[in-house]
Give the backbone structure.
Amino acid sequence: MLDMKFVRDNVDLVRRKMLERGQDIDVSRFSTLDQKRRDILREVEALRNERNTVSKEIGRLKKNKEDASLLIERMGEVSSRIKSLDEDLKDTETTLNEMIMIIPNVPHESVVYGEGADDNPVIRTWGEKPSFDFEPKPHWDIGEDLGILDFARGAKITGARFTLYWGLGARLERALINFMLDLHTMDHGYTEVLPPFMANSHSMTGTGQLPKFEEDLFKVEGTDYYLVPTAEVPVTNIHNGEIVDEKDLPLYYVAYTPCFRAEAGSYGKDTRGLIRQHQFNKVELVKFSKPETSYDELEKLTLNAEEVLKRLNIHYQTVSLCTGDLGFSSAKTYDIEAWMPGQGAYREISSCSNFEDFQARRAGIRYRKEGSGKVDFAHTLNGSGLAVGRTVVAVLENYQQKDGSVIVPDVLIPYMNGVDRITSVK
RNA sequence: GGAGAGAUGGCUGAGUGGCUGAAAGCGAUCGCCUGCUAAGCGAUUGUACGCCCCAAAAGGUGUACCGGGGGUUCGAAUCCCCCUCUCUCCGCCA
């Protein structure tokens, strides 16, 4: 969430920034309500002050066996007045809170204006599109022909958008997870964590999934628990409500988790294959940083994610999301899009964001400055490093051979127990 | 699932209605002292919000916060109710 004081003092700016995102938000109503809140607060605090002072006096009188009944009677009135003002205050704060919690983050100044995904500028590209002397197949055909991806049985076991992996397909997924974790822990300096795969509503609110995007989540019936839609939720909330020392920043965490998404509103989109599943695996990078360095950290994090594709030798491009395509909590996001020859398109395989203090303010993630001892909100960042299922797609489509087999990229061979080619088991 | 015990500041841990934002100790920071180190001495050491002041920082002042929510009371860390979490024992279990 945004800083209430910032919104209060920058009503026009905030409104303009939200319009750039394509959202018309009634910021002036917020401002009015905030003024009301402060008016009530001033009055109720003055009354409390009176009550505190007089109550001490009552205590003193009683101790001396003097009569305090007049004061007690008066304070009874003051107390009931406080009580009613408190209710007003609570209502106002609840409304105010509801409003601020659904206002998205302010885009960073470097984010270009645009209405949607088509307006995202390409920042850089790496590698080249592979050439084939045959018609490259989409991964769903490759996977089914090899017998490693079983969409029909996934649907039978659970439903649409669930997939069963067989044999070397399952091993490829596992190999990628391990390869990514090893790369980020050993070469990029991240600490590996294995968090819970469910998170409560408090955590979900901290990272911004709630209250606005509940329909995207799977909730466990009869509990306050949700299946995590990304490791961002449990890992960012590691430091929920904490004050960390400046000397410990930046913190780098990497986590493997499955991710569960309801994909409400994506009906008919990417219905075939692994691209859009209700359950998929992801290796996630999460950083906590000082405000001054968070944009440097975003660049580094994005390069860390890109390194996975470089080592797999898969062509990709990196785009910077424009204002209209930016996620709710993010101030700036780079998407890495891998080339998928079977689909003849670049597909998002990673999304790397700087949330600045937006999540930190919601989740109460702060740090204590070394010199002054002051506390301030940390900046949080995260990025996929990478989405594993989509990386399987990229490997299958980029490394497919004319005979239907798939060459295993060199870096993965050790993780595949020496297997260098996936051939049909049929 | 059954029975019980707990939750207090960075940590340990006092505190059963007013003099407690909170003893004491530890830790930390600053200063003093001592050839160095260690020890010692002194001071400081929570967060949020409001108001005043202000260019800002600093400062002043008020309110709230002793797991969360509600209640009793002139007044609650302290009494009552509900919830959450932690621990111990029993049962079950990968």
